[in-house]
Amino acid sequence: MPTLLSIQTAPARRVQINGRAILTGIYKLPVSGMVPVLPLGLDGDEQADLSVHGGLDKAVYAYPSEHYPFWREARAQAGLTGIDDALPFGAVGENLTLQGVLETDVWVGDVLKFAHCELRVTQPREPCYKFNAAMGFNTAAKAMAQQGCCGFYLAVDRPGTISAGESFELIPGPRRLRITESFNAKMFKHMR
């Protein structure tokens, strides 16, 4: 059964990216215990740019833990050894680090059913320059696009609580559009 390995939140804060002060919520930190899940996301989490993150359809960002070895290797190849080699969960900017569910397993409309909350898959995450900054190298967004290791956004269908270590059930939705298909279409559109 799929498992929620870790939960991360962050307040929006200003950071320097390419010489500019940018407001971002990408730098997530782990939280423990029961975390309230509200209609607009996890209690204590903020999104800085609501035109691309947050809102009802992008309230929570989930990411498969299975991709972390790829990112550790990509960072090592970029010469970033010694800079947080462990790459802790949340480093990709995700709220939920999942085990046992990849993008190829998930369709738009599927529901992650936890004991006290339900989250519906809405769309893949699109990488941006803030992702490059968070990962520490300028081709991270390109690597995400090429690998398809994007994770996915969730809407909160039933508010409640979740906790790290909790298992969940993946309830099939209408099975019209797989997350990987949606992501590939969006990346192709941006590359044209």
Task: Describe the 3D structure.
This protein is of the alpha+beta class. The chain has a single domain, classed as M1 Pyruvate Kinase, Domain 3 (Beta Barrel). Helix content is 20%, strand content 32%. The protein is built from 4 helices and 12 strands. The strands form 2 sheets. Strands 1, 4, 5, 6, 7, 8, 9, 10, 11 and 12 form a 10-stranded mixed beta sheet that branches. A two-stranded antiparallel sheet has the order 2-3. Strand 9 (111-113) and strand 10 form a beta hairpin. It is globular and about 40 Å long.
Query: What portion of residues belong to β-strands?
Result: 25-35%
CATH level-3 fold name = M1 Pyruvate Kinase, Domain 3
Task: Report how far apart the termini are.
Answer: 39 Å
Order of helices and strands: EEEEEEEHEEEHHEEH
Quick one: biggest sheet?
A: 10 strands, mixed
Question: What is the typical, i.e. mean, pLDDT?
Answer: 93
Q: Please, how many helices?
A: 4
What share of residues is helical?
A: 10-25%
Total of domains: 1
Within CATH, the superfamily carries the name: PK beta-barrel domain-like
**SSE class:** alpha+beta
Low-confidence stretches: none
Structural shape: globular
Summary keywords:
ten-stranded mixed beta sheet, M1 Pyruvate Kinase, Domain 3, 192 residues, globular, 32% strand, 4 helices, two-stranded antiparallel ribbon, alpha+beta
Brief overview, please?
With 192 residues, the protein is α+β, with helices and mostly antiparallel strands. The protein has four helices and twelve strands.
